[in-house]
Amino acid sequence: MTSAANGDQTLRLELNGITKIYPSVIANEDVSLSVKRGEIHAVLGENGAGKSTLMKMIYGVTHPDAGQMKWEGEPVHVENPAHARSLGIGMVFQHFSLFETLNVVENVALALPGNPDLNELASQITEVSNRYGLPVDPGRLVHALSVGERQRVEIIRCLLQNPKLLIMDEPTSVLTPQAVRKLFDTLRQLAEEGCSILYISHKLDEIQELCHVATVLRDGKVTGHCIPAEETPKSMASLMIGKELPVPERGEPAELGEIRLQLNSLSKSSDDPFGTDLKAIDIEVRSGEILGIAGVSGNGQQELLYALSGEELVDNADAIHVCGKASGRDMPGQRRLLGMGFVPEERLGRGAVPRMSLTENALLTAYHADMLRLGMIQFERISAFARKCIEDFNVKCGGEDHAANSLSGGNLQKFIMGREILLAPKLLVVAQPTWGVDVGAAAFIRQRLIDLRDQGTAILVISEELEELFEISDRIAVIADGRLSPAKMLADTSIDEIGVWMSGMWETPAAAGVDANA
Amino acid sequence: METSILSSILFATIVAGTPLIIVALGQLIAEKAGVLNLGAEGMMAMGAIAGFAVTLHSGNPWLGVLAGMLAGAAMSFIFAVVVLTLMGNQVASGLALSILGVGLSAFIGKPYESDILPTVGALRIPLLADLPIIGDALFNQQALVYFSWALFAGIAWFLYRSRTGLVLRAVGESPSSAHSIGYPVIRIRYLATIFGGAMAGIGGSFLSVFYTPLWVEGMVSGRGWIAIALVVFATWRPFRVLVGAYLFGGVMVAQLFVQGSDLDINIPSQLLSALPYLATIIVLVIISRDQNTVRLNAPVSLGQPYRPEA
Amino acid sequence: MLRLERRPEASQMMSYLSPLIAIVLMLIGGLLLFTALGKDPIEGFKVFFIYPISDSYGVSELFLKATPLMLIAIGLAVGFRANVWNIGAEGQLIAGAIAASAVALYFYEDEGAHILILMVIAGAIGGMLWASIPAFLKTRFNTNEILVSLMLVYVAQLLVSWLVHGPMMDPDGFNFPQSRLFDEPALLPILVEGTRLNLAFSFAVSALLVGYIFMYRSFAGFQMQVAGFAKDAARYAGFSAKRMIWIGLLSGGGMAGLAGMSEVAGPMGQITEHVSNNYGFAAIIVAFVARLNPIGIFFASLLMALLYLGGEQAQQYLALPSSISNVFQGMLLMFLLGSDVFINYRVRWKEAIA
After folding, report:
1. What subunits touch chain C, counting only 3 or more CB pairs under 8 A?
2. Mind giving me the DSSP string for A269-335?
3. Consecutive H or E run containing A28
């Protein structure tokens, strides 16, 4: 490890017995950890383990119910983020705390004390961004920035206050593999200069590459401290989830059948002023295969999904063929009748109505499966359907009468996935199948997708998790800036190549030899 | 002769537009912080009766304006408690505030229906008031007219030049981000809402103390709603509020002039009186046809309840 | 320090209790108001809430007043459930009254049941036409329906004012701004002899029944509820937003128009400038207090009607302006919206951390 980690032994931050209880869940229980000067300290745990809550307490966004925090040896109660910043704590949020309609300088100014002169601040931003290799234009509006650029703004915003401790909450989930490497360089440079870093992640390989020490959380409790360099991903995984990482079983690619989804040079300009335009996208998905689409978020995934589902219609009906029929002008209901199922990225509020029961939520898309008579709802049938879905997909809930928002993210996702799969789709479009879902549920969902493929369904998966796509896809394509790369057979590509493509560079000599959308 | 008519039309337009400017700018601030208060009509009505009653009893119109301001602020405080602390639906609560304010003002105002206040003289600005045509219209006006201009300048500066204004816009754009970098979102929204109420109260008192000057039930007659529409029309920009308010003032005045003139125009007076309302609808249609402009300028969190989870 | 804390799941019980809490708070507010005005609060309470319904005629008047409120509230509730905010029922009521009156006056001195039937149809269509303006502008240009429907209230009031001063004015009425008194065939039949309670009450009850089935049994009602709870989910499921806007506004407009018809063909027997007694706005409160539920609307309408009658009594016996009933109405809604917080939150005592 670097000398900084071993040099000065003063503890920068020390947590003792931190506990935080929410009405329905204990987020943190008796958590203790300590961070040295210049140390890159990983906090490892899967979704819902309580990592974010812990960081919010350190940063003063919320307050612990019990326990003590020491800052540079002194007991401290962090009142609020401004207080944290005055102590020298900076935080880069997973969901950025930026303001879209304000420009970069204004965004930075909002996090600084006093009333900084904006012109002076702009030159400071440029200076810091040059020093740490974080290029960003201070005058631009945030909504015009890419996700990576936004993250840089957040980091610069922290660095301008010369932090002694920088908290990074899942920083790589929005970056290409190459951008991750650049970020790591910046973080290492900071650590060399003496800044401590708390690095929150659930990605084992990253932690091994970057971090000096790691604290592992499970269900809100510390399950171990370790030195990542001395561990294997397997041993860390068992600390994190209590067992080994499950790997889905998959057979050989199934016999390819008919084309179930075909996009013919689909172009669409976004209605949203902050959106991405889709540019001449061609896709073919056949029965019995899973096509994965990778990409950094904000590169047109949303727009593509809206166009596929029918939530946004396209001008040219021929641009989208669902099961052989030109469907670009069809409403979502009509596309379902053709055999399409769709699982959106947002579960609460789009895939399910938060305040409605699971029965009613089943009706949301299952209504055409003989659930109505003369326009009246047949409640018996629909609740039987909901019960079947709960049983078949291991949905943990109080029963089909309970509201969707009473379920955990993973269970709700299983319910939505189950609802769409039970309708026996010929074509299934899934966005972020396991986003924010615990490891067990994620493995379950991936397995069900593979099983469905084996039964002959055509499946399109859009995900920002490369590992996931490499686990389940037969072919992979990349979306970047509203354009889609050619699709490659899984065996013919690598995470590195797809990573390069994610920045939009597939029309290079390296990309030759692509099987042209086989 | 010609110029004197022009001058008096201009004069009346400015007077008619003034309460709209004050109320709409107040609402603009509340909306920029993300709070949609549809109760402007009720707050104006309360401001009008409070202003009228206090002026009548004290003989001092400025005490009346102060009372109107406090009445509007008090009403908006009730609203703020319901929507900010108790997280009530903003649309429904605003409506309730309108119904409550209109009802309460009618109730309080019953004994005052036969009273009339003495006219308050204009505040003449030397030299400038002597300019031809515009002199009288612009510089021989009620003090509140000058106040409305100062308010406009102050708010334009506040929103786009001051740090507090930047924070206010940030809160309206993303309360959760503002909270996570440490701003007291709820407190800021309270202040903005109460400011909006205070301005609505002043606008209401302008009607009953300076404009008519008497009290009749229902005298606000939709101006609160028009002010809310004006903020949308202005796409949340102060200068456009100013322009829009005078446009509406002009429409209101034009119909009065036509009705009052000896011209032999055979239009029912009711149709002319409906013009400001129809104009509001037309203006709303024009602005909402271009959804991108509205979306780019509307405070993102407008009308959304927010509660920091602690 | 007292803190609000989110419940893990919304409390079903509180959603029924909070209207009752609001009513109690309104009563307390009323007692304070009477006291502040130097009136005996107990006497005030009696005059307001007991005297109006102390005999059977009083009760029939209660149902008579509740009729337009039920009609309008059920129509509005259909739209409100889908977040279609039709605030202009007052104007739609006037439009319906105008249309129905036009039929009555056209067939003046004629005989036959067709007159009433045509009046009912005309009333409903009149209200729907008025409501179709915001519906069209909303679906075509995305214009805010709250502001448009509200502006049209003022326009409708001016329109009826012009009509009764002009084309519809009673030729033998000494220039009073009102129409002729309608003939017998243009008046709704009385249900209970010796009272003013008329057939419109059975319209209202039927409307509540139909509304109940639509909201809780039909797929269309389900779709509207989905749209109200989660717009994106409705879009994901493929429910047409435009269709819901039309259904929501037309049902509110149609029912308000029918209420207008039942006023001119009922207790008024003619059309005047003051055809509506703020029913269009009071019905909004009814709909909210009732949680947009038809059974709730039945009872909330009676409560609201009682506030109207109480206001009249207060004017007569306590020398208070009748607008006191609007004060009560406003208080009720405000308290309700405030106490609704307990559906999703509960109060906890929490020690501040040192």
Report:
1. A, B
2. --SSTT---EEEEEEEEETT-EEEEE--TTSSHHHHHHHHHTSS--S-GGGEEETTEE-TT--HHHH
3. strand A26-36
Nearest CA in chain A to B298: A101
Nearest CA in chain A to C239: A333
pLDDT digits (tens, 9 = 90+) for C5-47: 777 777 888 888 889 999 999 999 988 988 888 888 888 888 8
Contact A350 C10 (CB under 8 A): no
Q: Specify the pLDDT at position A241.
A: 80
Residue A272 above 80 pLDDT?
Answer: no
Q: Residue B273: its chain C contacts at CB < 8 A?
A: 158
Flag whether residue B290 sits within 8 Å of chain A, measured between CB atoms: no
State the DSSP code for A246. P
* Segment (H or E) for A221: strand A221-226
Burial classification of residue A348, based on how many CB atoms lie within 10 Å of its CB (0-12 exposed, 13-18 middle, 19 or more buried): middle
| Separation of alpha carbons B282 and A357, rounded Å | 42
Task: Kindly report the number of other CB atoms within 10 A of residue A434's CB atom.
Answer: 24
Residue of chain B whose alpha carbon sits nearest to that of C330: B100
Shortest CA distance from C320: residue in chain B: B107
Residue C219 forms contact with A (CB below 8 Å):
yes
Interface residue B180 vs chain A (CB under 8 A): yes
C-alpha span between C127 and C89 (Å, rounded): 8
* Per-residue pLDDT tens over the stretch B155-207: 999 999 899 999 999 999 999 889 888 899 999 999 999 999 999 999 999 99
Chain centroid to CA B101: 15
Phi-psi group of C292: left, alpha or beta (phi > 0 → left; psi -120 to 50 → alpha; rest → beta): left
Report residue B159 as tokens. Answer: 């929103």
- Find the closest chain B residue to A65 by CA distance: B310
Exposed e or buried b per residue across B49-62, where buried means at least 16 C-beta atoms within 10 angstroms of its C-beta: bbbbbbbbeeeebb
Residue A492 φ/ψ region, left for φ over 0, alpha for ψ in the -120 to 50 degree band, beta for the rest: alpha
Task: Point out which residues pair with A461 in neighbouring strands.
Answer: A292, A430
**Can you tell me the distance from the alpha carbon of A377 to that of A456, in angstroms, rounded to the nearest whole number?**
31
* Residue whose tokens read 């107990």: C42
Token readout for A120 is 């002076």
Q: The pTM is what?
A: 0.89
CB within 8 Å of chain A, chain C residues 78-117: none
Cα–Cα distance between B267 and B262 in angstroms, integer?
Answer: 13
Residues of A in contact with B295 (CB under 8 A): 272-273
Of A375, A110, A286, which Cα lies nearest the Cα of C215? Answer: A375
B229 contacts chain C (CB < 8 A): yes
Give the pLDDT band (50/70/90) at residue A8: low
Interface test with B, best of A20, A93, A99 (most B CBs within 10 A): A99
Cβ neighbour number for residue A57 with a 10 Å cutoff: 24
Which residues 65-104 of B are in CB contact (within 8 Å) with C? 78, 81-82, 85-89, 91-93, 95-97, 99-104
Asked if A295 and A276 touch (Cβ cutoff 8 Å), the reply is no
Rg (chain A; Cα; Å):
24
Give A270's contacts (C-beta < 8 A, 6+ positions apart): A276, A277, A278, A303
Q: Taking the CB of residue B130, how many other CB atoms lie within 10 A of it?
A: 12
Q: C274: exposed, middle or buried (C-beta count within 10 Å: 0-12, 13-18, 19+)?
A: middle
Are A445 and A437 in contact by the 8 Å Cβ rule? The answer is yes
Cβ contacts of C323 on chain B, cutoff 8 Å? 103, 106-107, 110, 217
Query: Going edge to edge, which strands form the sheet with A66-71?
Result: A26-36, A11-21, A66-71, A74-75
Helix, strand and coil content of chain A, in percent to the nearest 5, comes to 35, 25, 40
Res B117: pLDDT: 85
